[in-house]
Amino acid sequence: RGIVAGTAGRTTLTGEGLQQMDGHSPILAAQNPPVLQYDPAYGYEIAHIVERGIEQMYGQKDEDHNVMYYLTVYNEPILQPAEPEDVDIDGIIRGIHRIKESQVDGPRTQLLASGIGVNWAVKASELLEKDWGVSADVWSVTSWTNLRRDGIAAERESFLNGGKDSRQPFVAQQLEGATGPIVAVSDYDSALMDGIRQYVPNEFATLGADGFGFADTRAGARRFFNIDAESIAVRALQMLAKRGEVDSNVPAQAWEK
């Protein structure tokens, strides 16, 4: 079977009570092996995930049909982009695909986000490019839990065969050649994003909706948790400054701006 859970996230029902602030359901779902949990951002991602779910649960392929697809969706209007002609369907199904490759010739960073957070990452990329000359690619992480499970499986395979012909986790394969520090963000606890930290080659930072902060607007809640676009941009600049790739006073200037 499959379920679609809305409203997802810790900030999308702010104002209707703390009991609605879900920052942990994907983490709980990850503890149940048959549950395949997805946090898609766009309609075309949902279409491919649902198609794959029907195929896996009811198709004729020789694979385990005893699975449950769990999609989190959001009660928030956004402009839905058209599906790119070169869309990475395998990446959508397995957990991560790049939706924006920056053309700016500057210090590089990678922004990983899921669900409604993808829009924040896209805006952060635009701020980094326009205001600070930073190249910021954006990746939609459709499933943090898929990526973690694949990483665990890759480690186990390496352990059992003595490290011979060990494969890279899928997330590391996808990010190969994607240089610069990573900022990972979602509308969930940072523990969700931290699940893939050990499987990526880049310096890694998370921004998550930890705790039960409260505000009377979604924008206020997202600023409180520092998961909005401006916070993502500042965090990326802090990491680049630490590496000496932007001037040391830039993060403070960005914070003030």
Walk me through what this model shows.
This protein has helices spanning 25-29, 43-58, 89-94, 117-132, 144-160, 170-174, 190-194, 218-225, 229-242, 250-256, and strands spanning 2-5, 35-38, 68-72, 96-100, 108-113, 135-141, 182-185, 204-207. By secondary structure, it is of the alpha/beta class. Strands 4-6-5-7-8 form a five-stranded mixed beta sheet. The chain has a three-stranded parallel beta sheet with strand order 1-3-2. The model has no long low-confidence stretch (mean pLDDT 92).
Strand content: 15-25%
Low-confidence stretches: none
User: Which geometry do the CA atoms define?
Assistant: globular
**Helix run count:** 10
* Approximate helicity band: 25-40%
Radius of gyration: 18 Å
Strand order of the largest sheet: 4-6-5-7-8
Give the termini separation. 48 Å
Main beta sheet strand tally, sense and closure: 5 strands, mixed
What is the tally of beta strands?
A: 8
Written as H for each helix and E for each strand, in order along the chain, the element string is EHEHEHEEHEHHEHEHHH
Task: Summarize the SSE layout with pairings.
Elements: E1 2-5, H1 25-29, E2 35-38, H2 43-58, E3 68-72, H3 89-94, E4 96-100, E5 108-113, H4 117-132, E6 135-141, H5 144-160, H6 170-174, E7 182-185, H7 190-194, E8 204-207, H8 218-225, H9 229-242, H10 250-256
Question: Would you kindly provide a brief summary of this structure?
Answer:
The chain is an alpha/beta fold. It has helices at residues 25-29, 43-58, 89-94, 117-132, 144-160, 170-174, 190-194, 218-225, 229-242, 250-256, and strands at residues 2-5, 35-38, 68-72, 96-100, 108-113, 135-141, 182-185, 204-207.
